[in-house]
Amino acid sequence: MAEMTLLQSTAATVVGRGYLSADHLSTATGLDPAIMISKAGGNFANPAAGASIMTEIEATGWYKFALGVGDTDTLGALIIRGTHAGMDNIEVVYQVVAANVAANVTQWLSQACAAVTVNGVPEVDVTHWLGTAAAVPSVAGVPEVDITYGAGTAIAAGAIPNVAAGSVGGLAVIGLNANGYDGGWVWFDTAGAAGAVNYVNGTVLNPCSSMANCRTIANSLNLKGFRVINGSTVTLDQGYNGFTFFGYKWVLALANRSIAGSFFSGATVSGTATGTGAVFDNCDMGIVTLDPCTFQQCVFTGTITVGTAGNYTFERCQSQLTAGVDPIIDFVAAVGATTINLRSWSGGVSVANMKAGDILEIDGSGKLVIAASCTAGTVRIRGNFTLTNGGSGQTIEDTARWNEDQRLANVTLVDTTTLTTTATNLTNAPTVGDFTAVMKTSLNAATPASVVGAVGSVTGAVGSVTGNVGGNVVGSVASVTGAVGSVTGAVGSVTGAVGSVTGNVGGNVTGSVGSVTGAVGSVTGNVGGNVTGSIGSLAAQAKLDVNAEALDVLNVDTYAEPAQGAPAATASLAAKINYLYKVWRNKKTQTATQTNIYNDAGAVIDHKATVSDDGVTFTKGEVESGP
Prior knowledge:
Elements (H helix, E strand, L loop, with lengths): L2 E5 L4 E6 L16 E6 L12 E2 L1 E2 L5 E6 L8 E9 L2 E11 L9 E2 L2 E2 L15 E2 L2 E2 L15 E2 L2 E2 L12 E2 L2 E2 L12 E9 L17 H11 L3 E4 L4 E3 L8 E10 L3 E2 L4 E12 L3 E4 L2 E7 L2 E4 L2 E2 L2 E4 L4 E5 L2 E2 L8 E3 L8 E14 L6 E12 L7 E12 L5 E7 L2 H6 L6 H12 L9 H10 L53 E3 L12 E5 L20 H16 L17 H13 L2 E3 L3 E5 L6 E9 L4 E3 L3 E2 L2
Parallel strand pairs: 1-8, 17-18, 18-20, 19-20, 20-22, 21-22, 22-23, 22-24, 23-25, 24-26, 24-27, 25-28, 26-29, 27-30, 28-31, 30-31, 31-32, 32-33, 33-34, 35-36
Antiparallel strand pairs: 2-6, 3-4, 3-7, 5-6, 7-8, 9-10, 11-12, 13-14, 15-16, 37-38, 38-39, 39-40, 39-41
Helix pairs in contact: 3-4
């Protein structure tokens, strides 16, 4: 605790600093401690104004309270205590002294005092020091101190002790207090005061209004940090290598200065700077030109131009549209091999002037546009990004990119050319009536060559069956139009009447066959079991009927979207197409760890999948059931 002096019955503002009780070291900010006072060793009680709280100075963890005359009316110790949950108590001791102290000194050690030169002003004449006559001062009336030793160590004649290093020649450095450079910061405020006097200017209570003055104080005291008050504007007046600038919602103009190895936090940044290794943290980056550096959780609104070749890292950064335009990263064709790493990027971004040797690595989610000015280089994409590539000559590595254009390209129902033609014709389909001949041809071409697995039932006429029917036909066949080439093996049974058979039936037919229209090439032996082998062909009308039914399935029948749950590893073709359409149509969200697919209402997560990225490989897990 520090002890300071207050005048009796005089209003004064007292200050103290709060620390978190969790570790007793971290500054406690954003609180409103309740204040209690103790006068001359008495019990703690509310101030004269009643129950009150201390208010924070900026967002520094320093708290203040204005004492009234009723709080300082008792001589002696005055203890100020601030309390708040989660914070160590603020304890500050003041000594209340009489406001008017009058003393008439006529003698000192039994010797009469000399008359004063000015009435009411005490006068001291030092003639001896420990029995030795004091030297005559160089300037009459100005006391002079010559320090020859400090803690037993001789000090060279004319030398000025350097107290910044802690101690020189036995002179201890006085600790910084509330009115000094707490935490090693020199304070800056556009609306602050002029001057560069140590422990007077650039303090928390008296910030400098000039960066030049701040730098003078920092150099004098060997300090490397500047605290910038909210709303201030800093224009760099010289190079600042290895310095820290900390604040919130302040403006930084780089002004073509060197900033190698410096750290900037909470600023809106613009301009050009040189020097590698700078770090920008939680900054709003406008139009800037910089050498290799790091951006942490920054927002980008303008063009970032590469100053020199090297590595640029963007960690958990995002874009902010300005008039509908995404931020641009300009590699500058004349610079040379440059690597841009966008880690956990969110939003849109454009790149320009990539050439041989340039590398862009991006992961996260959003939109990537490669401008026409990009003529070479390597682009590696991981995550949920749409890609617009207007450049030429780039090597695009995006097998870990997932988006509709990526996933649909991996689903092969028919050959790509036929599917594209079919989709085009369906898009151009008339609103009423039948499909055109071109559309029918395209749909026929898109029909799978074979159906693998059991077909539960076929409703309506099948136009034609080309090739062998490998398995069993269960249920009744209403009619067969056209010739059946051959049936190999036994037909177990036929339920119902067969109208007529035209031509010879070589073997036995058990039961009544109503009729068979068209030629049956030959049936050898009894048809006791399955019909194995090929059926020659269907008549033209049968083909048209089958085609009409197929078109009806494609154009008329509808299917409900898949319900919540994990997609089966083995599913029907219709189910698989349904899942694709649901992913394409419905609401989706993407976080750093999970992809979510919602139901039709967009309110419930029906399906989800985990995602991860260790900086080398982007991994998307298997889709599972929501929510």
